[in-house]
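A student in our group prepared the protein record below, which I am reviewing. Here is the record exactly as it was handed to me.
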Amino acid sequence: ELYYVPNFITKINFLGYLLTHNDALKRVMIFTRTKEAANNVFHFLDRRKLGPVKVVHSNKGQNTRINAMNEFKEGKLRILVSTDVASRGIDVTNVSHVINFDVPIVYEDYVHRTGRTGRAFQEGIAITLATDSEKYHIDKIEKIIREKIPVKSMPAEVEVAETTFHESHDMAREIDRQKRYQDPEFKGAFHEKKRKKK
């Protein structure tokens, strides 16, 4: 399932909504692109008491990571938040949901992440949250998996936050970069602004 979400805070709000209103999310892996995002998601879920939840990424010691994985495997955790450091080589059965909080930019990681659910003939659901600047990566992922990811509408109850200036600027810059990559002749909005200043 694919949901288009305008910004980071709305993704957090949607995550809170899903974990509060859907009892089917029993054993959930949430993947983020950065350690900072993983920590932010973890603190939000922990504060809201939506766990038990642990976070694993490359700043965590190996023992901490192994212990968190074991607790998740044993069913002691409802949620494991992770960067892609933990997406490969995990063999956990009965993962009910994988949530791609960020769209992976190494496209094979999408396959590794979503492959964590529905193992051993079990049913599983993969949910991906994407902003405008991540649509580019969705197109590439769909080419690799050779299928369209069904797009769903976000429930009306989810609070849609205003996009901050900083995030809006970062997303616009990223979209420019993607267009330039596709077409080296593309000058982009940022180029125009620079030229006018001269």
